Structures are given as C-alpha cells and as structure tokens.
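tool_call predict_complex ligand=nicotinamide-adenine-dinucleotide
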Amino acid sequence: MKLLITGGAGFIGSEVVRRAIKNGFHVAVVDNLSYAGDLERISGVKEKIIFYRVDISQRDALHSVFKKETPEIVIHLAAESHVDRSIIEPQAFLHTNVMGTFNLLELSKEFRIKRFINVSTDEVYGELGEEGYFTEESPLRPSSPYSASKASQDMLGRAYWRTYGLAVITVRPSNNYGPWQYPEKLIPVVIAKALNNERIPVYGDGRNMREWLYVEDCAEAILMITEKGKPGDIYNIGSNEERRNIDVVREILRIINKPEDLIEFVKDRPGHDFRYCMSIEKIKKEIGWSPKTGFKEGIERTVRWYMANMEWLNAKINTLRQYWQRVYKKD
Ligand SMILES: NC(=O)c1ccc[n+]([C@@H]2O[C@H](COP(=O)([O-])OP(=O)(O)OC[C@H]3O[C@@H](n4cnc5c(N)ncnc54)[C@H](O)[C@@H]3O)[C@@H](O)[C@H]2O)c1
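tool_result ok
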C-alpha cells in the first residue's frame, strides 16, 4: 500500500512515518522543511522513504508528486502548528492549513485517492469549563487563528466527502508530547529551560488544563484509523490524562531535580482556552484502540530523551531565539 504523508519531517508526522515503514507501507513524504521540520527525525528510515521538499500551498509542485507517486492513501499532517505564532503571524496559517489542505483535497479527488486522513485537532472544539468533555458531535468553536485554520481544514475535508465522495476520515488528537517535539510547545520549553537553569514562563495562573497524549500512541491511532476507519467519520484521539499546566511544570522539575522557584507566571495568552478534554469511546469501540502510555511514564521517557539529546535541543533553542528577536524588533 502506497502512502503519501505530508508533514512527515515534523514531530507527529515523523513518528507516523517510522511506524508506517515498520508496518510495511511504501512511504513518500512531502514536507517543505519549515522551521519545525527536520529530516534528522526520520534519518533512521531515510533509505526506505521517498522525500519531496515541497510546499503544500504550491499546487503544481504537489501535482508532480501525485503524478510520480500515485499514492493510494494520503495522511495529511503538514501544518503551521503553534498557537502563539498564529497570534503574531496568522497569514501563514491560512496559507498552509487552509490553502494547502485545499490543494491536497483537490489532487486527491483528481488522482482518485482511496483514503484521505485529515489530521485536525481537539482545539477546533474551543474551550471547556471545569466539567464535561467533547464528543465527535460537539460543535466547532475555535478560539485562535491556529484553531480557526484547523477548523477550516477539518470542515473542508468533510465537505469533500459529502460533495464529491472523497473518502476523507477526520481525526482530532489532543495535545501530544514526546521525543523530537520542537521546543516552543509547553513540555519541551519547560524541559529546555529547566535543564539550562532558566526562568520557566507559565501563562496566567497555570490552572489551564490539557489532555496529554504520548506521540507513539497518537501515531498508532492514526495508522489504525487509516486501516479501519470509516470514510466520512470523525475520530477523537485522546488519553483522558488531564493535567493543569502548573502540575506538568512541577512534574518536570521534580524529574530533573530543579527548584520550583524557577517558575515565573507571565501575562496570559490572548484567547487562551481554559480546558480541552475529549471522549474516546468511539475510537475504543469502533477501532479497538486505546492509549498505552500513562502520563507518568510518558513524561519520564520524554525528559530522559531530551537529556540525552541536548545538542539537538539547544540548536533548536538558538533558531527559536532568532525568531523571537525578529518579532520583538518588529514591534
Ligand atoms: N502537536 C500536537 O499536540 C497536535 C495536537 C493535535 C493535532 N495536531 C496536528 O497534527 C499535525 C502535526 O503536528 P506536529 O505537532 O507534528 O507539527 P509540527 O509543527 O512539528 O510539524 C509540521 C510539519 O509540517 C511541515 N510543514 C509546515 N508547513 C508546510 C507546508 N506549507 N508545506 C509542506 N510542509 C509543511 C513542517 O516542516 C513540519 O515538518 C498538525 O496538523 C497539527 O495541527 C498536533
């Protein structure tokens, strides 16, 4: 079976690529190697994949890839993925997440792709209060330019199923964490700061809650849905491992053995959603998937991985610093 995986040099995409190869798929990867993409993540399988450095917003270049590869399945993970960046520079998010997805759907229709796995996010549902959870039927109420662009991607995919019969399956994972995550997302930021004895910024009062999903579990779910999911359907991928941000930070400090006075509460992110949590009854019942890695085990493994890969981590921190310097200069 021939897979085309977009965003395969990214954090979750690379885990999906590694696992797909292990499962015996033929894999072609499309990724423009943005600041968040890195071929090192898939260097272990580089002989076994075909890689195209292509921007999904460039229709002609993408067309050549489809023509050459004639994939049977598309797993679409390429995205601008960071909420804070979407607040500063939203345009790139529309470019990639909306127009890029549109190009992929159009080409998938033209090339009669058998399955299109559209990777959305739990953030499309908007925020929850202290109680309750989202099901696949919950309305979409995105809060940030990132989640609005993902909701557009999500809805476009479902429209291609309803209108053209393209076999789109929508997946909505919760917050992922694990090795190889670019250190602008909460968990690797905290690990990097703590390891370098720097102040750790925590938005607001740190009470915002997220549902943490270990990346290997997420990739397993995506591939199981690829094989067993029903076209036109939506599947939440969660862990039910909810934690307040401040408790995540404290747990990391405990593992690294650093003092809690490194924590610094900073002005809250505009439009910051208080809580996300999803029902995963459907994926459990219909796909037979459930998460394997509890938060305690996953966070230990993640911290150990970053401690063993400090060179990679610090190189990314340097490129990140340059980005923020550019942003602050612009203000
Ligand atoms: N990380 C999470 O917690 C999480 C949770 C839910 C859903 N998601 C979704 O899962 C997908 C993967 O997330 P991630 O955390 O691995 O993101 P990531 O930022 O680590 O990786 C995204 C990849 O897409 C590539 N890319 C970006 N713009 C592109 C373009 N125009 N053309 C081609 N490639 C491009 C990047 O180079 C990178 O390799 C995204 O769609 C994201 O919205 C992520």
